[in-house]
């Protein structure tokens, strides 16, 4: 089954404690990205990757890091989380294709930073 | 600055009637327009899309309309069913890029 898997689904942490949210896709997609969803703001892109070892900032990259060492994995790293990073996070993947822009999303990670 | 706006945070429609969700955009350099549906505790799922060279695309009960002169996108669901109750996001793709820009979302509730 084609899917994007995120872990963990829920996480409560304290300010400053480094954390990683993992994301893995089994569709051999080149493009992967991270979004955060906040009330009234919709989905905003944090970082994206066009392929292995190619990453770039999205609209709200401050406080986040990513890496793309393998095609299937795209972890999101918060080196020193702060309460304003409390949010619902989604990983997504898609083919790089000029016609089909459909993105597949993971189930989400609800992060609370206290 | 919000490039994609869904001005209605919520919409309530009676089962069997038509649901119309709206989205306005500001940039003429968008070349692809999509709608995603999101249930609670799940990720968004792709629903329907339309290229900028078209003005209508239909898939079963779902039809997307694109009015380029007004920079307006709409999704029609007819007839509406209880399972359509969800949050709907419109999204646009910047021409020449893979990036999607999302609207704020509209919560649709279908009443029996």
Walk me through the structure:
The complex is a heterodimer of chains A (114) and B (112). Chain A is mainly beta and 114 residues long. Chain A contains no helices and 11 strands. Chain A is globular. The termini of chain A are far apart. In chain B, a hairpin with a 2-residue loop joins strand 6 and strand 7 (62-67). Chain B has 112 residues and is mainly β. Chain B has strands at residues 4-5, 10-14, 19-25, 30-38, 45-51, 56-59, 62-67, 72-77, 86-94, 100-102, 106-111. The mean pLDDT of chain B is 93. Classes of the chains: A mainly beta (114), B mainly beta (112). Chain A binds chain B through residues 4, 31, 33, 35, 40-45, 48, 50, 58, 90, 92, 94, 96, 99, 101-108, and chain B through 4, 6, 9, 32, 34, 36, 41-46, 49, 51, 89, 91, 93, 98-105.
Explain briefly what this protein structure is.
With 114 residues, chain A is mainly β. Chain A contains no helices and 11 strands. Chain A has strands at residues 4-7, 10-13, 19-25, 31-38, 42-51, 54-57, 65-66, 76-78, 87-94, 104-105, 109-113.
- Which residues of chain A sit in consecutive blocks of at least 5 with pLDDT less than 50? none
- Please count the beta strands of chain A (DSSP E, at least 2 residues each): 11
Structural class of chain B: mainly beta
Q: How helix-rich are the residues of chain B, as a percent range?
A: under 10%
Query: How many strands of chain B?
Result: 11
The greatest inter-chain interface is formed by: A-B, 26 and 25 residues
Assign an overall shape of chain B: globular
What is the N-to-C succession of helices and strands of chain A? EEEEEEEEEEE
Proportion of strand residues of chain A: over 45%
Task: State the secondary-structure class of chain A.
Answer: mainly beta
Summed over residues and divided by their number, the pLDDT of chain B gives a mean of 93
Largest sheet of chain B: 6 strands, mixed
